[in-house]
Automatic annotation (TrEMBL):
GO molecular function: zinc ion binding
Keyword Metal-binding (UniProt): yes
PANTHER family per record: BONUS, ISOFORM C-RELATED (PTHR25462), MEIOTIC P26, ISOFORM F (PTHR25462:SF296)
Name assigned to this protein: B box-type domain-containing protein
Amino acid sequence: MSTKILCGPCGYEDNNKHAKKWCTNCEEGFCEDCEKVHRSTKMSRNHTLISVSDYQKIKDVAISQTCVGHGKRYDLYCSVHDKPLCIDCVDQHKSCSKLVSLDAVAANAKQSTALADLEDTINGALQNVGKFIKNQETSGKEFDKQESLIKKTIKKTREKLNQHLDLLEQKLIQNLSTKIINCKSAYAKVLRQLNLADTKLCQLKEEMETIKQMASDIQVFLGTRELNKTACEEIKSIKGIINSTKYFEIKIEIESSITSLLDCVDQLGMISLVERNSELEFKDVKLDQAQDQIYIPTGSRNRVIYLQLKQKLRIWKAGNELCVSGCLLLPNGNFLIADFLRANQIMEFDGQSQNVRYISCSGEPYYLTLIDPDRFAATYLGVNKIDIIHLRNTQVQTITTTNECRGISYQDGLLFVVMAEIGIVLLDLSGKILNTLAIDSQNVYSIATAKGRIYYTNEQKNTIHGLSLTGQEIWVYENESIICPRGVAVADNQDVFVVGFSSNNLSIIKQNGQGSEILLHEIGYG
């Protein structure tokens, strides 16, 4: 609920009346009668009056027209310090050459480019935030998809394990059944033989009893001899059966890998969370400098490139020799400069060309590449090593190499290094060589990488090369307008920017080496 605004002049007379208008100059409300007086007074007739309802909308916007230090209204403006001044502030700005009336400088402020720039900046920021919100919402939906996929993978893995265990169980039970049948068959065979022997012995016993009761002595004598012979043969057969009989004991031993799995594996899998920095970029719409538009045809339509001079670094002083061989823009807006003629030092400058510090290194720095916000790598011509230097504490990790290192580029955890007499060598950050791409590296000093591609320049042959990560040459570009190509950089869309050392220009080579355009002439050596 809005608060009622009272009339200032009436309030001074202890008469509380609601204001109808608000003066943005006086920062005071006026009732209908006081408004008429305010408009008719010579000193205030040009003041801006707005309705109280409009004032309610802007009253929470903190715009002070009073000097904090002196408590007086701002009357002047110092364009040197970009600061409004009251009458008492003037003493502190006596040496400033551009003191003007605040009314004069604020005239037509609503049509000023500063306000338009502010509108563009806010609108651009809203567009960025809208894009970021959409990206985050998309990321959340992607996370749901990833969760669903992982759950399906877990379930499918479990089903596969169950199916495999069922198969193993079936095979093991089948093997058990076969062995049981074989053992029981052996036992049954022996049992049949023993039962047969038992029957024969019983018959011999009956025959013996019959002879004993019914036969004569001679018959008993002769029969005993015959029966004894038969009984001995039967007993011998029984002994043979007993001696050849096997007794079985069936056991099971679970496969050691299965037991080890049960003992050692306490989970079906592991859920890992990969965290990486956002690739979103806040794109500024406000351009502080003039822009040149260059249209380059790409197929059936044009692509617009905006070239903008953002900063000039003045690092050369009279009497000092300088040879800038490497330059690196840091995330904080500072610059690192490798001066090949300055031994054991890499220069750091801020955006105002002020020398921030000298970073110690172990040679004459040649080429630089950024690894992360706190680390960069440096090479040294004539030296077989690479230094990884920490920006905060300037600690150095040295990677010793077999050959001289020249251009260097970092991409996706790998260092791509031009090594003399070898080619392009891929190393991890510990210095382990992962691959070597054989190229004619005799006159190759600059390299850049982006999105699975490697780009390098050959100064003597006046060629620019595009390679795959496996070393396969994708394209070679040569143009008489690019003489002695040296520095090379890559845009997000794989357009390649090349500095011609001798032709003294900056050119862009379109994707896949299908033509070039000069962007800047006479840029100075670089």
